[in-house]
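Field: sequence (string)
Field: structure_tokens (string)

Example rows 1 and 2, in order.
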Amino acid sequence: MGKTRYAAGEIIFREGERSDRIYIVGSGEVELTRTGPHGTVIVAVLKPGSLFGEVGNAGDEHHTVTARTSEPTEIDAIPHDALRTAGRRKSPAGVSSGDHRLAAMAGGSPAPDRRGPDGGGTTFAKPPVPVGKPRAGVFDGTIRICPDSPAAARQLPREGITVDEFPFRIGRRTTKSESRHAMSSHLELDEEQPFYLSRLHFAVDETAWGPVVVDCGSRLGTRVNGELVGGTADEVRAPLNPGENTIVPGNEKSTLRFKIVVDPAKNDHCRFVDGLDPARPTA
């Protein structure tokens, strides 16, 4: 691996540039940003041990985000060719070369592919390495993502899945002709064309004001209880109310629809709000 030291505020790569290597944060901090209709959105903040950069099989991957250091940072870079060679040489039976390459770089095991009861294509897989800023929990209740359309019900259990960490990212499984997104999703779903769900579409996150849905720079935005966030909207996040919340990633034609059920703990001191506090920084 080649180690490079960056000063604070340096660009590692820009959105749209060709990707020919994978990066691992050795020390410091990296921000991943994406340009949308209303400016730049921070997709993630990466700490030491985090992996980023596109990995695909097409041989012509391009970065979907811009990576910039937010403090003095040391980065390890691994060329794609070296990863592919290592994957062919070491991949055990039953493990895809893509999962094995990511696992080898992270120094761990491939993320498990825990499929739904019908054997469908939903992957409940944690990112191969920790990403985002670690923090003490704010919301102490439970949050479940449940299907609210036939297409979603074919991939998710009726009772839904429990959000067990924040931010919890939801997106579309990539096709063979696409490069992997720089950030892994915790929940990946299959969708037939035309696509309304982006590869990294939205996330469930926690704040001192209560849980929220954050649009992650998707093409069409996310509708939360009928309110558009991301896409052409000025806001990129919306609060989740206690009880059921309707989530439509994309527009009214989207076949993947969800209900997010929020059950606050009795001792939860989070303050649920009807609207966003304008004093809070945007995502």
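Row 2 begins here:
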Amino acid sequence: MVGPVTSPYQDKNLVTQDRRIARTTVPLTHEEADKTEVKPLVGLVKNASGDGVTLGLGGQKAEKAETPPQGSAESVGIVAAAVILFIAFGSLVAMGLPIVTALLAIAAGIALMKLVGYLVPSPDFTVILAAMIGLGVGIDYALFIVTRYKDSLQAGDEPETATVKAITTAGHAVLFAGTTVVIALLGLIVMEQRLMTGVAVATSVIVLVTMIAAVTLLPAFLGFAGHKINSLRLPRRTSRRQKAASAASRERISGFEGLPGRTRRRGPRGGRGHGHGV
């Protein structure tokens, strides 16, 4: 430690009004203390509790020391989303666009969230929570637009026209859905708890950035992809129903061509097939 330690018996501001909680500040010798150095101290203080008195350490270093190591939840979510999208679209390019858009939006959203954190502080777990929410809504919003874009291409539209149709139709739905989610998250501010206020503001920033990326960044990707959005397709087996429908269609065509009176033989050009006498 460095510097004096003020006792709560000397400073009345360190004791709550109900006189149930008292605190004091313990300066550390190293401002950048490692987690492995702080964790034993946290356990030592907790073990000293007893006789109706509960002891504990607070502050940023203690919170990080008590936070369990994070698992691979984000990686599992990305892999699961990639598999589902690949099966749904049947194309690596169409599968990659929603995921890439969501990841770039999350990176930009976390950077903006860190800046907002100077005004509205949030707990450490907010980054993980916001990343998971951003991954879900980001892929969902991009999925709307990519699906509409592919439908327009199948209808015979050019890539530029298909992009415009996708934004003017599915893009409006994305803006409406994203705005609704942001309003719902900001509703946590009504609880008037600093912890939930920071979580609400941080997650709403992520959702806002992913929504903007879906209607601005994704159309640019679609412009580069063009008709190649169906490239690297997944080989699919033709179902029995499709085979039966195809066979029935060929039978109808062959039966139609074999009906009498459906063919007409024309004579030489300029005549009607009649002979000319001399």
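free_text_note (row 2): The first helix runs from residue 35 to 47.
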